[in-house]
Amino acid sequence: MTAWGHTWTAFAAATRIGFAELAAIYTWRTWLLGWFVRLVTQAVFFALFGLLLGGAALVHYRAVGNTVVLVCVETSVVVLGTVRERNAGTLALQLVAPTPYVLTFLARGVYTLLVGVASSTAAFAIVLACFRVPVAMPAALLAPLFIAVVGLSGYCFALFVGVVVMHSPAVQWLALNLTYLTVMTVCGVNVPVDYWPDALRAVAQVLPLTHGLAAVRGLLGGGPLAGALPGLCLELLVGVLWLTAAVLLLRVAVHRGRHTGSVELSG
What we know:
Elements: H1 3-25, H2 28-53, H3 56-68, H4 70-75, H5 78-87, H6 90-96, H7 101-107, H8 110-130, H9 143-164, H10 172-186, H11 198-205, H12 210-220, H13 225-260
């Protein structure tokens, strides 16, 4: 088998393990009737505020924002996974395996990205239909691709946060909630990014969702596809930057753990 073949086999195996963990928590009924309904309800809840604050236009604005952001909500769960890798001792096993530990570490949470894209896309279709949000066809059919790019960027950001809190498991839930709540607050989900002070606008530019959501809005509004592509490319760039930071920080954490004997368990 070639080196690429070994790499793909290891990546696929790590991803399957992630899905097995998901299956141990949910059945398809509990996921669909529990978690997914919760996501759709959240999007509907925030969209309905538009009726109180500004009318149909604001409802439509929030319906789009609060369905696209769901993919970031889903991928933020990987924060818990990074902490669990160390506390369960599986990070140490990855370090001694012949496959690069960075590869398996990244792949273990890919299920959050794949499930997130599926659930966000489904909620997107349901909520936009319920609120009769006008969309430009057939361009709107590309929305799942745009959501996937947003999800990839959000996944990379969540990986970085997970590595940051790897040594502090007590704050993992706080970190998870702050991760997606920050994105929901400042990245244009419920109010335009321009609403915020200059400092928060600057922060929004380097967070996932901001550029991708703007691209989705442009796509649905009937703008040319070429006009939406720069935003999509910026979203990819943001994801690459967070992924790079996550990998570098992971290497530093592993190097320190090896020298201090603290790779397993955080105490």
